Amino acid sequence: MTVYNFFFTVISVLLVYSSRCLGQQPNPCFANGQVSDYDCYQAFALMNFTTDNTILAGEKRIATASGGCLLEVLSKDTGATQRFQIYDAMLDVEKRCSPAMVGSLPYPSFIMTMSQIQPDTPVFGSNTKFDVPSCNIPSPFSPGIISPPDCLKAIDSIRINKASPQKLLAQSRGEISASFKSCSVYIKSSNQLDITLNQDKLKKMSSLITGKCKQLSGSVVKQFGSFGLNSRTQMQIYFNGKPL
Fold this sequence. Notes:
This protein is of the alpha+beta class. It folds into 2 domains: 37-116, no CATH class; 134-239, no CATH class. 28% of the residues lie in helices and 22% in strands. The chain has 5 helices and 9 strands. The protein has helices spanning 3-24, 37-45, 83-96, 148-156, 199-213; strands at 61-66, 69-75, 103-106, 110-116, 134-135, 175-180, 183-189, 218-223, 232-239. Strands 5-8-9-7-6 form a 5-stranded antiparallel sheet. A 4-stranded antiparallel sheet has the order 1-2-4-3. Helix 4 (148-156) packs antiparallel against helix 5 (199-213). The chain starts with a helix and ends in a 5-residue tail after the last strand.
């Protein structure tokens, strides 16, 4: 084999290998869903930043929605993320995933995801109204009749985390679960940061649900309620039956 043929063979193999590697990269665009640029711009406008136009330190997950567009930013703990970087990433997804404009792209300090959201999607759907309960929600437990006082007792059973300087309720990554007799209560923050609501405020949320839904399952969403600038806190109440 001549030197020329040797190098030609090596280069050919490298080209084939590189093309295969490129072909193995996942498509960043979603196969389903479609959003409008107007809805996504409106969703971006709902994001809250610090005074220096960065994501608040520790706020690892931000989600905002407007109309049919849901924007999600997942930080990587590799430095501050600037407001303009998120805006540019949104434009990048729109351009690369046109015309549907739905997809997920990684960047050095965060991952940007744009997807279509249905009006009745919990927490961020356009039908969600703050402090307005939704009734008869799907339950992970067998059906039954909820006694509203049991829900208040369940909230009373949530202990305070003594190690917390703010005396927050015991929780894990912005999630609290409690149950008493017929009632199971589940509370979750949208940004996975600690819930700052005390028992009295949680009882008010519970009373909103049982006041409207009576003995049925239900949920209610509150704006903020946890650390961070972009949080929503949802409470769900179920009959405390057997897991399905």
